[in-house]
Amino acid sequence: MRRSYCVMLLALGAALAVPVSGRAQRAFQLSPVLGLDELLRVPESNPLASARIAIGQRLFFDSLLSRTRLLACASCHQPARAFADSTARSRGVRGSAGRRNAPAIVNRAYGKSFFWDGRAESLETQVLQPIQDSLEMDLPIDAAVERLMTDAFYRVAFADAFSDGVTPTNVARVLASYVRTIRSGDAPIDRYRAGDTTALLPQARRGQVLFLGKANCSACHVGPTFSDEQFHNTGVAAGTSDAGRFLVTGREEDRGRFKTPTLREVARTAPYMHDGSLATLEDVVDFYDRGGRANAGLDREIKPLGLSAGEKADLVSFLRALTGTVTAGVPKTRP
After folding, report:
1. Using an 8 Å Cβ cutoff, are 176 and 122 in contact?
2. Fold match between 5-184 and 186-325?
3. CB burial class (10 A; 0-12, 13-18, 19+) of residue 91?
4. Left (φ > 0), alpha (ψ -120 to 50) or beta: where does 164 sit?
5. Could you tell me the pTM of the whole model?
6. At 171, phi and psi to the nearest 5?
7. Which of 293, 307, 322 is nearest to 214 (CA)?
8. Predicted local distance difference test score (pLDDT) of residue 331
9. Which fold has domain 5-184?
10. Which of 26-30, 82-86, 101-105, 192-196 shows the lowest per-residue confidence on average (mean pLDDT)?
11. Three-state secondary-structure class, residue 166
C-alpha cells in the first residue's frame, strides 16, 4: 500500500477526531460490516470526518452539480439499486447517452483504481470527472465551485469543514468521503461463512462450490469485495469500438480489458458488463458458459464451462446470496 494511504478502523469501536478549520470534529465510528475488511483505503490528505461526509452526501443527491440542474450523482447511482443504474447506458444532460454502463459503487473504499478502464487512481480524482463530462453532468468544475460559493448552505458548510472553503480539491474531498461510506456486506454468504449453516439455501451452497471450482468465477471475483481489481478481456467488447484499458495505457495487450466489477449486490444491478449488454444474471452465466466471446486477447481463464441447466441455476442462486445490507452516510455518533 502506498504511503499516501493511512489505515483506519484497526479495531471495533476505534474513533477518529479530525481537526477541521481550527475546530475538532466530533469523534465518530464506522461500524464494522460482516464480510468486509475493517481497513479502508483513505488518503492522508483527506481523512474521514463527519462534516466532510455530510456535505458530500448532500452534494451527491443535489442536481446543482449538473449544467441543467436536473441531474445529480444519484440519478445514475441509485441507492435502491446498490448505487447502480437500471439502464444499459445512463442518460446525461439533455438526454445524451453515456459511453458505458454506470457501475455499482458499493465498497469503493477498498478500490485500487476507478472507472471500467481504471483511468482514475483515487476516488478524489474519479468523483470530479462525471461532473465535467459533456455526456454526463457537463458542468466545468470552476462553474460548480461558483455555484457552491453562491449557495448559502454550501458556503457556510465548506467554510466550517475547510480552512480554504469551497475549492475544486475540497469538492472532490467531500464527494469521495461520502462514497467511502457506501458499503455492502452482511449478506447470506457472509453469515454462512461466519458459521450460520442455515444462511444459505442448498441450491446456493451448490452454487458456491461451482463458483470456486468448475465455473472458475473466483479466478477474478475474489476477496471480501468479490473483485481482484484487475483488468480482463472476456470478449464482451470484441468487435466494438471500445478498447477498454488500452485507451489508458496504450499497450496492445490491454485492448478489450475492463476492470473486474464487484459481485456484491449483483442481483440488484442489472444490466451487466461495461456496456450493459447482458440483461440478467442468467444471461451472464450463459455468456461465461460459452467461454466468453473469442478474440485475440481473450483472457486465458475464460473457457467453455459445460454447465448443466441445474448447475447454471445453482450458480445464479449463489450470486443472489451476495445481496446484503447497503449502508451509507454520516456515521452515528455516541450520545
Report:
1. yes
2. yes
3. middle
4. alpha
5. 0.91
6. -60, -45
7. 307
8. 59
9. Cytochrome Bc1 Complex; Chain D, domain 2 (1.10.760)
10. 26-30
11. coil
CATH classification (class only), 186-325:
mainly alpha
What gap in Å lies between CA 187 and CA 135, rounded to an integer?
Answer: 35
The C-alpha cell 450460520 sits at 196
State pLDDT tens for residues 91-133.
999 999 999 999 999 999 999 999 999 999 999 999 999 999 9
Positive or negative, the CA dihedral 305, 106, 265, 10 is positive
Q: Is the pLDDT of residue 9 over 50?
A: no
* Domain ranges within the chain, ordered by starting residue: 5-184, 186-325
Three-class secondary structure assignment of 272-321: ECCCCCECCHHHHHHHHHCCCCCCCCCCCCCCCCCCCHHHHHHHHHHHHC
User: Cα–Cα distance between 175 and 172 in angstroms, integer?
Assistant: 5
pLDDT grade, residue 146 (50/70/90)? very high
Distance separating alpha carbons of residues 180 and 169, to the nearest angstrom: 16
CB atoms inside a 10 Å sphere around CB 22: 7
For cell 447511482, the residue is 77
pLDDT at 23: 47
C-alpha cell, 116: 471500467
